[in-house]
Amino acid sequence: MKSIFTNTNISAEYKVNTPYNQETFLINGELKQWKNDTSKVFSPIYTKDEGGTLVPTFLGEIPNLGEKEALEALDAAVNAYDKGRGEWATLKVEERIACVAKFAKMMLETREEVVRLLMWEIGKPYAESCDEFDRTIAYIEDTLEALKAMDNEASEVKEHSGILAQVRRAPLGVVLCLSPYNYPLNETFCLLIPALIMGNTTIFKPAKHGILLLSPLLEAFQQCFPKGVVNIIYGSGRTLATPILKSGKVDVLALIGNSKSANILQEYHPKKNRLRLVLGLEAKNPGIVLPDCDIDLAVKECVLGSLAFNGQRCTALKILYVHEDIVEEFNQKFVAAVEELRCGLPWDEKVNITPLPEPHKPAYIKELIEDAKLKGAAILNPSGNQFEHSFASPTVLYPVNNTMKVYHEEQFGPVVPILSFKDITEPLEYISESNYGQQVSLFSKNSATLAPLIDSLVNQVCRVNINSKCQRGPDVLPFVGRKDSAVSTLSVHDALRTFSIRTLVAFRDTTVNTEILEKLLDSNKSNFIKR
Ligand code: G3H
User: Fold this and answer.
1) Is there an atom of ligand 1 within 6 Å of 473 CB?
2) pLDDT per residue over 302-313, tens digit each?
3) Protein residue with its CA nearest to atom 2 in ligand 1
4) Distance CA 235, CA 244 (A)
């Protein structure tokens, strides 16, 4: 295999000035200097050191905070919320909207820098990095509009059985937000922004990878929100999140990641009924390719679905069931399409497959392939099963069976397991037996074939994609899952509900109360009761 790390001629627009050190963290509105223990951040992109040896590029350092700083951040968020009496929680919705709009404006100015860091830190291709940034800005703008509409709707005073009421959505309290490395900007902001705009206060700890790309945004967070409303801390998840949860002072655990961490963390909370969970966890979305499908379209969508960003999407197609009548043609076309994918560095033109940010991932992918080979699968594509440092070429495995690890485990990497099936009950059984229940893709041109499958699968997963890959977007659609895949629903509209609770002020319909209500509505004295 030709080395993918040979392109030493990196254009200035893609370069990061190193060391890119994050020397501060945000607590109680203060960007505090950190002079103690730090962790080094390395890129999955290898470059030559002085001796000419390829090594992971050193990017910079981040603070390695401890329990003391974690509890300081917690105190700041708890005090800022002040049991619901804090400035942010009681602010008029329009004023919170103005703060977030100011933040989005400042964020736009950081686009180039954030995109560059996305490429270097997690190896995301340039076009996809730009897309992640732009999609996040669009998500914030759509959130502002959705909240305006929601607030307008809530202005109506309702009358039922002699009771007048104004019903609005109020914050939940203190939110601990932990985000994933694969969408370190988008997934973070899809939690943080709705949590903030609904009046909660937050503590945010970035994932293991994709940390420095948040540095250009720290000042915007500091300047746009009152002190203590956003607290950003760095370090080990276990060290920082454990004492925060054990304190019992967190009202919402918002975590996109794996169920192991989610289970451990929620167990720490001493008052479990008070802890609301917003979780996006593992998935193993299947693609089911039926004999009456458009094979070319199915191939195109399955390649994108299984290998976009090297298969590191929670929504990726992680197993393909292809009907035995067409499996030969499908496999041949699928392999041809995979072989067309361009392997390289994030800024290489039209690149598809790039280095993997998790250092252990290539070895794990290799392990899955070796296990499948031992148990009877073949590697279908000539360029499969090739590795170079952090890089793993895409590998297509067939025929896969239920004795193999890759059949059960969420690979989250560039390996595509394919099975053939005779009877539709085989993939349906796979889905109902699976621990996961996020999405499925069905490929068929025939509505009569699809109808009964749709009707049974909507009760197994939360999105049935017809003739298209699984995906989260567009972000106005609900993103949710069953079983071990998710808790709570996210979308522009749903996230505002997820991070808030309906609260109402009710008046018995008497002359005195009607007068009080009218005065409240006209005087602008309450931030809750208003027109
Ligand atoms: O990793 C999960 C992402 O939210 C997936 O988003 O399906 O739009 O790529 P996407």
Assistant:
1) yes
2) 999 999 999 999
3) 314
4) 13
